TrEMBL record:
Keyword Transmembrane helix carried by entry: no
InterPro entries for this protein: KR_dom (IPR057326), NAD(P)-bd_dom_sf (IPR036291), Sc_DH/Rdtase_CS (IPR020904), SDR_fam (IPR002347)
Keywords: Oxidoreductase
Residue ranges occupied by any Ketoreductase domain in the UniProt entry: 7-190
PROSITE patterns on file: ADH_SHORT
GO MF annotation: an example: oxidoreductase activity, acting on the CH-OH group of donors, NAD or NADP as acceptor
Keyword Lyase: no
The protein's name: Short-chain dehydrogenase/reductase SDR
Coiled-coil regions listed in the entry: none
Family listed: Belongs to the short-chain dehydrogenases/reductases (SDR) family.
Length: 246
């Protein structure tokens, strides 16, 4: 395994959960990180913690639904550290509900954040990766796309779309310049349930997270594992779920 000390990593959705855990772990292992999220106070506090512990961290306020924000994230990373080695597309929401409820606003929101947000990241980072001659795109997907449960059809569809884009980018990148990794977590103890409008679904999801959820650090370790591989090794997909999850 290679060290992370020479890696420059930008992470969306870094204000909590998997994104925060990933930023903290990668910084502990020597990477320089750029924390991106909408909540400026939160990412600033996390970055300060990282710096106080001897790590390298800066922040960038980003709404992934805005293409210009992702362009600014990439340019900020390059301005601060000279390049961008890895973009971790982690931002995501899950206002899930049965299709019969016709929550078209929730559907659109998931498409905008989960899919379009990832594509905005691709559009911002890919030209830079090509110019640099190297780069790594990591996206947090979901096991929900592997086995679709009731109320999760549109959420799973957005995650499967991300998985498909990853595979397409992989097949277009066999020149060895760009690596791609899709990481699909199962139940993780995060605040994802906060984006669920249906109170019954939200409560059941929180109960499942409390009963079987793994810590965000478990997914962060998978991200680190994929990133630290030698340049000629690509970890295409990782599923990370609780051992007790069906």
């Amino acid at each position: 395994m290679l060290s992370l000390h020479d890696k420059i990593v930008a992470i969306t959705g870094a204000s909590g959960g998997i994104g925060e855990a990933t930023a903290r772990l990668l910084a502990q292992r020597g990477a320089a990180v750029v924390l991106a999220a909408r909540r400026s106070e939160r990412i600033d506090a996390i970055a300060q913690d990282i710096r106080q512990e001897g790590g390298r961290a800066v922040t960038c306020v980003v709404d992934v639904t805005r293409a210009g924000d992702l362009q600014r994230l990439v340019s900020t990373t390059i301005d601060q550290y000279g390049r961008i080695d890895v973009l971790v597309n982690n931002a995501g929401i899950a206002p899930i509900s049965p299709l019969a409820e016709l929550d078209t606003e929730g559907w659109s929101a998931m498409i905008d954040v989960n899919l379009r947000g990832m594509l905005n990241g691709v559009a911002a980072a890919l030209p830079v990766f090509r110019e640099q001659g190297s780069g790594h795109l990591v996206s947090i997907v979901s096991v929900a796309g592997l086995s679709v449960s009731p109320s999760m059809a549109v959420y799973a569809a957005t995650k499967n779309a991300v998985r498909t884009v990853h595979e397409g980018l992989r097949t277009e990148s066999t020149d060895g310049v760009v690596r791609t990794t899709a990481i699909s977590p199962g139940y993780v103890r995060t605040d994802l349930a906060d984006s669920m409008a249906d109170p019954h679904i939200r409560e059941q999801t929180r109960k499942n997270m409390d009963a079987m959820g793994i810590p965000p650090a478990a997914v962060a370790r998978a991200v680190a594992f994929a990133i630290e591989q030698p340049d000629d090794v690509e970890i295409g997909e990782i599923n990370v779920r609780p051992t007790v999850q069906a």
